[in-house]
Design a protein that fits this description.
Layout (H helix, E strand, L loop, with lengths): L15 H21 L10 H11 L1 H13 L6 H12 L1 H6 L1 H9 L3 H5 L3 H10 L7 H14 L2 E6 L7 H24 L8 E2 L2 E2 L4 E4 L13 H22 L2 E4 L7 H11 L10 E7 L5 H15 L3 E6 L4 H11 L9 H17 L4 E6 L3 H14 L7 E5 L4 H9 L3 E8 L2 H16 L4 H7 L4 H4 L45 H16 L3 E3 L1 E3 L2 E3 L4 E6 L2 E10 L3 H20 L2 H17 L1 H12 L3 H25 L3 E2 L6 E9 L2 E5 L7 H12 L3 E5 L5 H14 L6 E3 L4 H9 L6 E5 L2 H12 L10 E5 L4 E5 L5 H13 L9 E7 H15 L20 H17 L1 E5 L14 E4 L6 H4 L6 E7 L2 H9 L3 E2 L1 E5 L3 H10 L4 E4 L16 E2 L17 E9 L11
Parallel strand pairs: 1-4, 1-10, 4-5, 5-6, 6-7, 7-8, 8-9, 9-10, 11-15, 18-19, 18-21, 19-20, 21-22, 23-24, 23-29, 24-27, 26-27, 29-30
Antiparallel strand pairs: 2-3, 12-13, 14-15, 16-17, 17-32, 25-26, 28-31
The structure holds flavin-adenine dinucleotide.
């Protein structure tokens, strides 16, 4: 739910005099609009008008319609179009909407219902908002606007570049477009009235650039490289702009790109070559809480540089996205929660712009009459000629408002996106949402008939008030699920937001600090006391095998026995400690981890070769495990009544299993070790942690935190050492009650077998929690959104060098998409940066050690004989590091080792499927069942994979790694594991046995009333 108190201090309502002028201007604009009539989209008569009317009446229809519109350009045959139409809007939907059927028929759109001619209908709809790709068409439309007195700014659609090749192409398209328009404009006889400002003409060629399209690898940890690469592609555009006397504007995109955009603007326009020309500007978004501070910063910069700039003030186009992303990551929302706050900020920022016209040319990007009227009234009050600033509106939107603004003698610029339909779909859907938004000005004015008074209300009146009555009314204004988990006890630890400079600095500092601490000896911990051993195993940095991260004590069987004795001695008392106290100790451990988050991440970077974000995510998950299992234990602590019966009490309660061993892998060196240990311990058991040989230092840090939190002696013991010896000894030990293992299938099955044999004197049937590997598959359907599929698949396949058990290993792509997808996938893979993980922005680092490196290189060689090598990346030539070139094979046969064996490295196999049926068969042809995924925009196929795809965690239209505690309980079956779900509510029960206590409460025929 939206918060009911506002996040900003109450804004002062406008002065009465200015308010009355705003109303007068507003009334005048409305009068002019009413003369012109509603925009065609709101006419309720035409084909599109009918559709929009229905979309505004029926949320479900709107969602389905817009999703269908989104997929349509990718569909190549009439039968595919009909199938999707049916799947999205279905017979049932169309029957239900008999009124719509009639309306469409009356509007001449009957063909819509039968699938024929649909694509051209949607193309027509899109063309209302964007110019095509055809040069003649573009020039004609711009010329027409010019003749009507509207200036223009052009933007090229398709900013979602996934590779450096695509970024190059995008930059080149700008140059071509600028050349074309430069030539054309030179031929236009008279200047456009809207380019005629009191201080002289403004550049007629105005170009809007989305900087994200100029570099495919913008990464929050590394804005410097982003700025360097974007600048390299931008400079030729700026040079051409100088030659042509053009104006360059930076659009403002999602919040994650804001800092890069602002920095890039300041840096590149301070370069001597561009310090005076071309004319430049940028967009600022009033829905951002930072908007006013950012404007102050940019004005100050302009003054210091003695540079005139334009600021285009808009409200912001990504409100839903920003709100959802912040919710998902538990970050504070960067945008206001209520539209009135955005509107009021727009008005305040407008005033600041008008007060600074000595350095800033103001451009107001809005279709809202109140916002326009407010600008006019304030300009009048300040004595500013209304032709000193301009209004900007979107092509195809709010034409009557444009006409009114021009009639009032204002300068108007239209924002004209050009390009293909396919890359333009995101833009089209944004416009459709904007036109149909319940909160938007356009829908309220033209579709819902809100009164002028309502539409002209001062938004600041609502700011600071109890805005319950203003709570968003529809899902387009606030996602329905927002806040649903805020009332709950457990909340996931937010990932670190590396967009924040202080966070990047903290991490960089932690790397230098931790480096000073490398090379120490890490003893065993038994009974909370350090125990040294005669042997010490060095743990080496995979990016530099000469760097010893630390030395781990090597336990022998004698120390294993000592640890077991300590655990056995401690366990009964620990089990009797109130569950709430045990939970509190885990929560304390979590708090200590949070305190040390950067330091722990650095150990993972140096010892396991994780990049900044992967390491940070692992520490966050460890924190989650402690907090989540603590909260689950609190719930389990309440005995559950089994059945209510008079005279008898029957309750089920849980008892710990005793003493267990925790055998953890190196790939999530903190999270998995913590998760398994925390679950067992909070349940009242005592444990011996046996960390991986590759990551003993991070395990030692965990042990330090358990000690600092105050866990009693013997409850957690740390036993680094040879798994084959001490691990195997403890697994078959008669006094061990349970084993929690995560690791390879080979070791897992050995443990499974060993625990099946009952040793003499054994007291319990051993419980084994066994989580093993995967050979995970993603299906890419013929209608998949490739922008998303390419990025998601690469992240899933090559994140942490493919060394996650959840990693994508097999891609099955429908024949329709196979070549296109592969081409983009390979280009995108080639754009990923490989290098030491401690360098921010390197996506791929080294694999864990030499053995792994050799093993993976060997399977790559085998792969070259089994399939076709589609691409192999380059890696640093540093022989001290364990790099494996990321590799993609295509046409991989299902009977090959590549297709069947778990590789645990950056190797991806791609196989073609002739249809969806075969794709599912291929996906399921596997001994493992861990993760799986599907990219599809067919509702029927999505439902199908939900039912048919054999895996423990299925992800649809997103990457298949990165499960979050509680949100996506994680674990597989078949040869992937025993069906246990780490991070799920039931996980703790693996470490407990249920008991039922029955008490006869009947004494001489009398029972207490509540029994
Ligand atoms: C020429 C031009 C260029 C543009 N360039 C950019 C750009 O570079 N970057 C960009 O992001 N957008 C850009 N836009 C899009 C612009 O942000 C939207 O068109 C604009 O927000 C719609 O505002 P409005 O004043 O016309 O309509 P209104 O209906 O008055 O406002 C709608 C806006 O209010 C805000 N809003 C809606 N609900 C809430 C809520 N619950 N809480 C807080 N705020 C809310 C949103 O920003 C929404 O878009 C541009 C628009 C124009 C006209």
């Amino acid at each position: 739910m939206a918060s009911t108190t506002l996040e900003k201090s109450p804004a002062k309502p406008q002065q009465p005099e200015i308010e009355s002028r705003i109303h007068e201007h507003g009334e005048r604009i409305f009068a002019l609009i009413d003369e012109a009539g509603a925009p065609s989209l709101f006419s309720k008569k035409g084909f599109y008008g009918t559709l929009m009317e229905w979309a505004m009446k029926d949320e479900h229809f709107k969602t389905q319609l817009f999703r269908f519109v989104d997929v349509l350009p990718t569909l190549t045959s009439a039968s595919e179009i009909s199938r999707h139409l049916k799947e999205y809007l279905g017979d049932e939907q169309l029957n239900l909407s008999a009124g719509l059927r009639l309306g469409l028929k009356a509007a001449g759109g009957a063909s819509w219902l039968f699938g024929a001619g649909l694509k051209s209908q949607v193309t027509g709809l899109a063309r209302q908002f964007m110019l095509g790709n055809d040069e003649k068409e573009i020039v004609t439309a711009l010329r027409q606007a010019h003749e009507q007195g509207s200036a223009f700014t052009v933007d090229i659609l398709g900013e979602a570049v996934v590779s450096e090749t695509e970024a190059d192409q995008y930059a080149q398209r700008y140059l071509t477009l600028m050349d074309l328009l430069g030539k054309q404009i030179a031929r236009w006889r008279h200047p456009c009235a809207s380019n005629d400002a009191p201080n002289g003409p403004v550049p007629p060629l105005n170009v809007s650039v989305k900087i994200s399209a100029l570099y495919s690898q913008v990464h929050p940890t590394d804005p410097d490289t982003a700025i360097e690469r974007i600048s390299a592609r931008l400079r030729p555009i700026l040079q051409r702009a100088k030659e042509l006397g053009a104006f360059i504007n930076f659009d403002m995109e999602s919040y994650a790109l804001k800092e890069v955009t602002l920095r890039l603007f300041r840096e590149i326009f301070a370069e001597p070559e561009f310090a005076a020309e071309p004319a430049c500007g940028l967009a600022l978004q009033a829905y951002l809480k930072d908007c006013e501070a950012d404007l102050d910063g940019i004005i100050q910069w302009a003054r210091e540089q003695r540079r005139r700039i334009t600021v285009r003030l808009v409200k912001g186009a990504y409100w839903d996205y920003e709100t959802i992303i912040a919710q998902q990551r538990h970050w504070p929302s960067p945008v206001f929660a209520h539209k009135a706050e955005t509107d009021a900020t727009f008005e305040r920022v407008s005033l600041t712009l008008l007060e600074n016209t000595d350095v800033v040319d103001a451009a107001f990007g809005t279709h809202n009459v109140r916002s326009v009227a407010c600008v006019l009234a304030q300009a009048e009050r300040l004595g500013i000629d209304r032709r000193e600033f301009e209004f900007q509106m979107l092509y195809g939107m709010a034409d009557p408002i444009k006409a009114a603004v021009r009639q009032l003698g204002c300068r108007l610029r239209e924002y004209c996106p050009v390009g293909e339909l396919l890359p333009g779909m995101a833009y089209l859907v944004r416009r459709l949402l904007e036109n149909t938004s319940n909160e938007g000005f356009l829908a309220n004015k033209f579709a819902k008939g809100a009164s002028r008074d309502e539409l002209l209300k001062d938004p600041s009146e609502f700011v600071g008030a109890d805005v319950r009555s203003l709570a968003p009314t529809s899902s387009d204004s606030e996602p329905a699920h927002v806040g649903s988990y805020t009332e709950r006890r457990f909340g996931n630890e937010p990932p670190t937001d590396f967009n924040i400079p202080a966070e990047r600095e903290r991490m960089a500092r932690a790397i230098s600090e931790q480096r000073q601490k490398l090379g120490r000896r890490h003893p065993l911990i038994i009974n909370n006391r350090p125990v040294s051993t005669s042997e010490w195993l060095p743990s080496l940095n995979p990016a530099n095998q000469n760097e010893v991260v630390g030395y781990a004590a090597q336990a022998s069987v004698a120390e294993a026995e000592a640890a077991l004795a300590a655990a056995r001695a401690a366990q009964p008392k620990w089990a009797r400690m109130p569950a709430l106290d045990r939970a509190a100790l885990l929560e304390k451990t979590a708090a200590l981890m949070r305190r040390d988050k950067a330091a722990l991440s650095v150990v993972e970077i140096l010892e396991a070769g994780k990049n900044w974000q992967e390491a940070d995510a692992d520490v966050a998950e460890a924190i989650d495990f402690c907090n989540f299992y603590a909260s689950v234990m609190r719930d389990l602590n309440h005995p559950q009544r089994t059945q209510a019966v008079a005279g008898e009490s029957n309750v089920q309660q849980w008892w710990p299993r005793g003493v267990g061993i925790i055998i953890a892998p190196w790939n999530f060196p903190l999270a998995i070790l913590t998760g398994m240990a925390a679950a067992a311990v909070v349940a009242g058991n005592a444990v011996i942690m046996k960390p991986s040989d590759q990551t003993p230092v991070i395990a030692a840090r965990l042990m330090d935190l358990f000690l600092e939190a105050g866990l009693p002696p013997g409850v957690v013991n740390l036993l680094s050492g040879p798994g084959g010896k001490v691990g195997a000894h403890l697994v078959s030990h008669p006094e061990i009650g349970f084993i929690a293992f995560t690791g390879s299938k080979e070791v897992g099955l050995r443990i499974w077998e060993a625990t099946g044999r009952t040793a003499p004197g054994q007291l319990n049937l051993k419980k084994v929690v066994c989580e093993m590997g995967g050979k995970n598959c993603v299906i890419v359907d013929g209608d998949a959104d490739l922008d998303e599929a390419v990025v998601g698949c690469l992240a899933s396949a090559f994140g942490y060098q493919g060394q996650k058990c959840s990693a994508l290993s097999r891609l099955v792509v429908l024949a329709d998409n196979y070549d296109k997808f592969l081409e983009r996938l390979v280009a995108a893979a080639a754009s990923l940066r490989v290098g030491p993980s401690e360098v921010p922005g390197n996506i791929l680092g080294p694999v864990i050690n030499r053995d792994a490196q050799e093993r993976i290189l060997e399977i790559i060689e085998i792969g070259k004989k089994e399939a076709t090598l589609a691409w192999q990346g380059a890696v640093p030539t540093d022989t001290n590091a364990c790099y494996v070139p990321p590799t993609i094979f295509k046409d991989v046969p299902p009977n090959s080792r590549l297709f069947r064996e778990e590789i645990f490295g950056p190797v991806l196999s791609v196989t073609k499927a002739k249809d969806f049926e075969q794709a599912i068969e291929l996906a399921n042809d596997c001994e493992f069942a861990l993760t799986g995924g599907c990219y599809s925009r067919s509702p029927v196929n999505i439902e199908r994979v939900k039912v048919e795809m054999v895996c423990g965690n299925l992800y649809i239209n997103r990457g298949i790694t990165g499960a979050l505690v509680e949100r996506q309980p994680f674990g597989g079956f078949k040869m992937s594991g025993g069906g246990t779900k780490a991070g799920g509510r039931e996980y703790l029960q693996n470490f407990l046995v249920p008991r039922v206590v029955t008490e006869n409460c009947l004494r001489r025929g009398f029972a207490p009333a509540d029994e």
